[in-house]
Every structure is written in structure tokens, then in C-alpha cells.
Write a structure and sequence with these properties.
The protein is an alpha/beta fold. The protein folds into two domains: 33 residues, no CATH class; 148 residues, Glutaredoxin (3-Layer(aba) Sandwich). The protein is 40% helix and 17% strand. A seven-stranded mixed sheet has the order 2-1-5-4-3-6-7, with helices on one face.
Length: 186
């Protein structure tokens, strides 16, 4: 009987390893695991909050229209650096979509990708998301950088970084909605 149990354990381990090696199965598994372990992002303590260096940042929307980041000064801004190939990015997108549906007219959402507009637009259409995706034309203001994907910054109206989250999170959680409501009321 013990030999039989060991064989099943070995078979299960081989199947899991194969599933993680094969690209067609690896990505869905990664997305599932990221969704499973995503929690609400934590808020930076007020005394630890950095301010962005400036609002001098130029973006481009999918219609190739130039967008000045300075247009969003004195607003609550959510900046998410992402990519269509990034499993943790894909895992957190449904929570962003739900949040955007409720807060899209109250806060500014900027989804920044280094990919071509056609690639991000096709992804959004395929997933039925209406999140606003942009491409950077100039470097993001310090201390924001999107070298690790996904990275999300939530800026208060005075330009302080209230949340700086690297990795996937549940952006539609009750605790984050309370944080966002508080920032919007300030």
C-alpha cells in the first residue's frame, strides 16, 4: 500500500511540474495563484509618504494623443505599470476594472504599459476592460518607476504617494475603497 501512495505522489508531482513547464498551462496557473494570494494593498504611514518630484511627465493614449501628467495635479491618481504578458498584472486587472467602474469619474486611473497601443488595446477588448491604457513618452517622475511589474502608485491630491505596491493586489477590497474615499474627501 505504501508503494502505491508513493507512485501517486510521484505522478502528481510530475503532472504539476509539466503544467508549470508548458507555456500554455503555466500562465493560467500563475494568474490563478496570484489571484488567490492577492490582498488589499497597505497604505504608507503619513510620516513615511514621499511626494512625487514633479508633474512633468508626458504620456500618450491609444489614439496617439499627448497627455500631460500636470493635467492631473490636485487629483487623486492611480498609476499602474503593467504588461499584457505579466501574469500578476493580469491577475489584478479584474479588481481594477470593478474599482474603475465605481471610481472612474472620481479619481484618475492611468495604466502604463511599454507595449504598443495595438497590443494593449486588443488585450483590453478581449478581456472586455475599459481601463485607460497609456504609453510613456518621457520618464516617470521620481520616485515612481515601473521597472517591476506590476507596480501601482496611489497619489493624494497633494502629490504624496499614499500606496506604492509592487506585485498583484486586490484593488477592489473594502479597505482600499475606504482609503480611496478618504483621499477623495480631502
Amino acid at each position: 500500500m505504501k508503494l502505491f501512495k508513493n507512485q501517486w505522489t510521484n505522478i502528481i508531482m510530475i503532472v504539476i511540474i509539466l503544467a508549470m513547464i508548458i507555456p500554455q498551462t503555466r500562465k493560467p496557473i500563475q494568474i490563478f495563484v496570484n489571484k488567490l494570494i492577492s490582498f488589499a494593498p497597505s497604505v504608507n504611514d503619513e510620516e513615511d509618504r514621499e511626494k512625487i518630484a514633479s508633474y512633468n511627465w508626458v504620456l500618450e493614449d491609444k489614439r496617439k494623443k499627448r497627455i500631460e501628467f500636470s493635467e492631473f495635479e490636485d487629483e487623486v491618481v492611480i498609476v499602474n505599470f503593467w504588461a499584457t504578458w505579466c501574469a500578476p498584472c493580469i491577475a489584478e486587472m479584474p479588481s481594477f476594472q470593478e474599482l474603475y467602474q465605481d471610481y472612474g469619474d472620481k479619481a484618475t486611473f492611468l495604466f502604463i504599459s511599454g507595449e504598443q497601443h495595438e497590443t494593449t488595446d486588443n488585450f483590453m477588448k478581449r478581456k472586455r476592460y475599459d481601463l485607460p491604457s497609456y504609453k510613456m513618452l518621457t520618464k516617470a517622475p521620481a520616485p515612481m518607476d515601473g521597472r517591476t511589474l506590476p507596480t501601482t502608485y496611489v497619489l493624494s491630491k497633494d502629490g504624496s504617494i499614499v500606496v506604492d505596491k509592487v506585485g498583484a493586489a486586490d484593488w477592489n477590497s473594502d479597505s482600499f475603497r475606504k482609503t480611496l474615499d478618504k483621499l477623495l474627501a480631502e
